[in-house]
Each structure stands twice: as C-alpha cells, then as structure tokens.
C-alpha cells in the first residue's frame, strides 16, 4: 500500500459520489417526462457501487509485497434502471393519455431522490474531509525532514 493510497481511496469515493449526484439530478430533472425517445415515460436510474478489496485483503497483499497498487476504495459497477411500475394519473387532456384518459408518469419519487441526494452529499463531504486530513498528515510528515 503506497504512501498516498489514502488519497486514492478518498478520490475514488469522490468520483463515485459525484456520479451518484449526476444520476440523481437526471432523475429529478425528468420527474415529469412522460415520453422519451422510445415512447415510454422516463425510467428512474440508480447507481450500484462496489468495494474494491476489503481493508484486510488490501493490507495483507500490501504487507506481503504482492500488490503495490493498493487497489482499494469504491467503484461504480453499473447504472441500473428502476423496475418500479409507472404511476397512472388521470388527465384525459394530456397528449400521452391512453384511451381511458390515464397518463403513465415516471417512476421517480422526488422524496426518495432528495434522501439519496443528501446521502450522496454527506458521503462526498466525508471523503473530502478524509482527503484533507490525509493531505495534512502528509504535509506534516514532509516537515519532519526539515
């Protein structure tokens, strides 16, 4: 495990949380989109994250000299589509209404998106704090040699 691997770990978390915020923003922006390119309502997207090596595995590989890259942190596995059914809203004047007057609305729940946004923001904030703490420790370590 390299000296600056802590920064790499925090950096991977920052990148993953930024992508989560982008996907959440897209979901919120399309909360009323009833027709996409394929003719269906917008489908909510979500991000799946995966841990890159457990702490114990990374520490063991590093201490045995097997892996000097310190591949730890988090990575995005996929951006999936939510399978929650679309909500039917009665609005017979809407251009996308069916013969019964119902419109299929996107499966985006604004409350859930806001909760996810707060979670992503707090995770991003925690990674920034960890990155800055690691940076401060590195600076202090370099000052020892003066």
Describe the structure.
- The protein has 146 residues and is an alpha+beta fold.
- It has one domain (5-83, 110-144).
- It has 3 helices and 4 strands, in the order αβαβββα.
- The chain has helices at residues 5-29, 55-63, 110-144; strands at residues 45-51, 74-81, 87-90, 102-105.
- Strands 1-2 form a two-stranded antiparallel ribbon. A two-stranded antiparallel sheet has the order 3-4.
- The longest helix has 35 residues, at 110-144.
Which characteristics define this entry?
146 residues; alpha+beta; two-stranded antiparallel ribbon; 3 helices; 4 strands
What would a concise description of this structure say?
The chain has three helices and four strands; from the N terminus they run H-E-H-E-E-E-H. The chain is α+β, with helices and mostly antiparallel strands and about 150 residues long. The strands form two sheets. The protein has a two-stranded antiparallel ribbon. A two-stranded antiparallel ribbon has the order 3-4.
Count, helices: 3
SSE string, helices as H and strands as E: HEHEEEH
Per DSSP, what share of the residues sits in E-state strands of 2 or more residues? Answer: 15-25%
Strand order of the largest sheet: 1-2
Number of domains: 1
Radius of gyration: 22 Å
> If you average the pLDDT, what whole number results?
88
* Uncertain stretches: none
Oligomeric state as shown? single chain
Estimate percent helicity: 40-55%
Structural class designation: alpha+beta
